[in-house]
Amino acid sequence: MKNxxxxxxxxxxxxxxxxxxxxxxxTWNNSPKKDEAxxxxxxxxxxxxxxxxxxxxxxxxxxxxxxPAADGNRDWHYSDGILIYKSIxxxxxxxxxxxxxxxxxxxxxxxxxxxxxAKVIKIAGCNDENCLKQKISDIxxxxxxxxxxxxxxxxxxxxxxxxxxxxxxxxxxxYTIITPxxxxxVYQFLNKELSKEATRDIYNKxxxxxxxxxxxxxxxxxxxxxxxxxANAKFGEIEDYIFDCEYFKEKLIPEYQKDAESHxxxxxxxxxxxxxxxxxxxxxxxxxxxxxxxxxxxxxAKRKAEFEANNPVYMAQKLMDAGDFNGAIEKxxxxxxxAENNSEKGELVLSIASIQYRKLGQPxxxxxxxxxxxxxxxxxxxxYLLIGDMYVGGANNCGDAWVTSLAIxxxxxxxxxxxxxxxxxxxxxxARIGRISAYMxxxxxxxxxxxxxxxxxxxxxxxxxxxxxxxxx
Length: 473
What we know:
Layout: H1 7-12, H2 14-22, H3 34-49, H4 53-66, H5 76-91, H6 95-117, H7 129-149, H8 155-169, H9 178-190, H10 196-216, H11 221-236, H12 239-242, H13 245-258, H14 263-275, H15 283-310, H16 312-321, H17 325-338, H18 342-358, H19 363-376, H20 382-394, H21 401-421, H22 426-436, H23 443-448, E1 456-458, E2 466-468
Antiparallel strand pairs: 1-2
Helix pairs in contact: 2-6, 3-4, 4-5, 5-6, 6-7, 7-8, 8-9, 9-10, 9-11, 10-11, 13-14, 14-15, 16-17, 17-18, 18-19, 18-20, 19-20, 20-21, 21-22
């Protein structure tokens, strides 16, 4: 028979279920309709076993209306009714009817609990209050399971049932509440429906339940372990927002102890604990800080060494500042070797020439280096300005006043060549020429020596240049 034929019946039974729950629980044991109830019970149970939930409905309703507590030894009339109405919920498309089925499911759970509290339905093998609390906790856990997986109930309502199950069951609460408890708590916290303290309290409950049963519940230990692993991963999504120093210490210390000399582990643990308010006076933080600062110092030294290795010009300047001129030259040579083009190499080589002349007093070597620089970068006047400066600087060391004046001519020649080769050097070259022109050969002294203007003369000493004699004006 098609489902649609039964649907009108289902919702006509709402009042019957509500009325039955409102009455004190009753069994069929002393009922004049005992036979009728037992027969209806057998028939609907057979239909359920065959998976025919809708066909089971009329006989379930008859059995339930006569004896909600059946024979007092089982809660089948409630639990089977819940199965039937869950089937209705799944098949129904009308929103109002789906909600009616949900309400009936909750009524049946409430009625079942009432029957256990009234001790009409007995708990096999146990009659004390602890057994009763545990049983009701289990029923609440099943209700929460249905709300989470089947009924898709609002999380606010689901959280209430989970709280009740956890409170009644304590450490022995069923593993089935752990996964939904974690999901609901995290969702509610992220949506500002649950405080940090309340969320952390649920985390503590979940872990207490899980850890206790992993250690003590041999039969279901693996179930608790799987559920707790999921729950803690879920809480991990918000751990930075709800937990304090002690939580993170408990979490991170094993990781640290496993590899206490790892730079990455030390840095990670120290930074995370620092951000969670762990005080500087904490012995662990003192230990971590000491290691962390050593790591930072080592890494800074390494970065510095890498930077210096990759920046020889920078190091050359540092060595210059420190007065290590030979060391600076070596660094410039390294820079030359790694330079990308001849123009760049020429500038670096000229820096070496400058050090050789100005800092080491090696004009001969400096001149050769400057010439090499000029060869690397054509049409560049700077090397010739430097050579001219060398000649001016060495003029007084090569002989008498006449020789000095010839050295000045050699310097002027280099300055002239610098600006002819590289017009951008004209201003510098002209300024230099202007400063030394007064020291050119004197015409009277030249005549006394029998020197005619325009003659080619050799400049002695290390300079060794040939100049054309001309006199100062």
